[in-house]
């Protein structure tokens, strides 16, 4: 009975080692390295996107805090960027200006 147990343990260990070696050999091929690199770049891109979203959310929150503080201290309205840009801008001439002698 004991020999049968150890034979089963040896077979299981052999199957495990064989499987791990096959996986490692596959990862060391050019296709496997490319797949690992692609996965790493995909994760990096997702992390950078999440970081950017967190930074933008923090910026919006801080901008609102500063706007509230300025409005509270001055008693006036602080326009947002889109409100400030939408105000009447001086008309810009289109095209090139012609010179007098041309």
TrEMBL record:
<feature type="region of interest" description="Disordered">
    <location>
        <begin position="72"/>
        <end position="102"/>
    </location>
</feature>
<feature type="compositionally biased region" description="Basic residues">
    <location>
        <begin position="93"/>
        <end position="102"/>
    </location>
</feature>
<protein>
    <recommendedName>
        <fullName>Secreted protein</fullName>
    </recommendedName>
</protein>
